[in-house]
Amino acid sequence: MKQQLSLAEARRTALAAQGFARPRPQSPTARHLGGAIARMGTLQIDSVNVFARSHYVPLFSRLGRYDTARLDRLVLRHGANGRPRATGAYFEYLGHEATFLPVEDWPLWRFRMDAMRAKYGGPGSWYAENAATVEWVRAELASRGPLRPAQIESDAHRGARGPWWDWDVVKRALEMMWRFGEVAIAGRRGFERRYGLTEQVIPAALLDVEVSSEDAIRELMRRAARASGVATASDLADYYRIRDRRAVLAAVHELVDAGELAPVAVEGWNRGSSPLPAWAHRDATLPRRITAATVLTPFDPVVWFRERAERLFDFDYRIEIYTPADRRRYGYYSLPVLVDDRIVGRVDLKADRPASTLRVQSAWWEAGVPAATAERVATALREAAAWQGLERISISTWGDATADLAFVMPDAARHERPSVEPSAPEPVPAEGVEPALDPA
């Protein structure tokens, strides 16, 4: 890898590390899906399902149209018959926020589970003061096996509500036990989690493996660097949400000493008048070009760290689902649009399944986008519609890219800006990390 990179070279390096330099398979298999997840290192989960659930989209962005049932069998522990399987290749934990992670990585996350317990499970905590509830839930799982919260019912607990996200005490106990590593997610029915005791879900050979915090953070920084291609310390820390900057820098320096990372200077990456320290992984590649035209989920590693997205792509991005409808600038759930090595715009997509229509609720260009880009974005939208099994596309009148897209898509219908946009969803702590329980 070069010691100095232009910004365009840094973008291509980063996108190549995420798999965008690879040719798309004609018919993605489970092996392709697993390979893409391995390159990313993790797959973030989110409950919003306006276009498609977030964990499905990164695989589509990299591989094109694929059968989501294949991914369900990989990460949701669904068998070919739709029934839950007892074991799986992935587990769910707070790897970035709520994410799917390779099951063999379970020992790497013990340091975070222990930190969670130390911070939120000690004397005086809700967990300690509700020990009877916790023990009752643990006994239910031990005797009955993995269960959905609704299946754990008791008159002594039903209806007891607290201030923490208005969950009943059973749900809260399960969530705390999950964060502490006492229970694991044994699959989902639809999108509802099934919780089991850790020994019911995680292979026994992994349960007693001990990895020190220092070794775990070093390994996670190694993986973050490989998945990033080129990155700053903040980029690496955010990839797996490591809050201890001193531990991150210690790991980076050890990886440099081992020859796995090399310092690089990236054009425009500055802190004041000084270059911002950055490193490239030894396996990073610099392709001559990236050929891509696709949408990204807001929770794709390419854009999930907003500071990095702005530094790499000059892309200022915020999700507006929690912004009041009349104050949204770009739409409810706008998706970044990647064309080659640039983010060229954003589109707010809605899958209107009763009408079999992909609704482009808004579309916007980034500054300086060539006019010919509209054709490439149209191709991406057609592919997105086909992947979701939607027969038609309708483009609204809201956004400076809508007229350009309508011009190159004469077969698309038009509609006005929706007069009533979706309200913000209820927070779903089971799929993310509420402010009180940040990763360690």
Overview of the molecule:
- Helices cover 34% and strands 18% of the residues.
- It has helices spanning 7-17, 30-40, 57-63, 68-75, 110-120, 126-129, 131-144, 169-179, 198-201, 204-207, 213-228, 233-239, 245-257, 306-313, 373-387, 402-408, and strands at 4-5, 43-44, 90-94, 98-102, 183-189, 192-197, 230-232, 261-266, 270-271, 274-275, 278-281, 293-295, 334-339, 342-352, 357-365, 392-396, 413-415.
- The strands form 5 sheets. Strands 12-13-14-15-16-17 form a 6-stranded mixed β-sheet. Strands 1-8-11-7 form a 4-stranded mixed β-sheet.
- Helix 11 (213-228) crosses helix 12, helix 11 (213-228) crosses helix 13 (245-257) and helix 12 packs across helix 13 (245-257).
- The longest helix is centred in the middle third of the chain and has 16 residues, at 213-228.
- The radius of gyration is 23 Å and the shape is globular.
- The two termini are 32 Å apart.
- Mean pLDDT is 89; it is low at 155-159, 162-166 and 426-440.
Task: Jot down its keywords.
single chain, 440 residues, 16 helices, 17 strands
Q: Main sheet, how many strands, which sense, barrel?
A: 6 strands, mixed
User: Per the principal axes of the C-alpha atoms, what is the gross shape?
Assistant: globular
**What percentage of the residues does DSSP assign to strands (E)?**
15-25%
Given helix and strand content, the structural type is alpha+beta
Strand order across the largest sheet = 12-13-14-15-16-17
List low-pLDDT spans: 155-159, 162-166, 426-440
Rounded mean pLDDT score = 89
Number of strands: 17
Q: What Rg, in angstroms, do the CA atoms define?
A: 23 Å
So how many helices?
16
Q: What gap, in angstroms, lies between the N and C termini?
A: 32 Å
Estimate the helix proportion, in percent. Answer: 25-40%
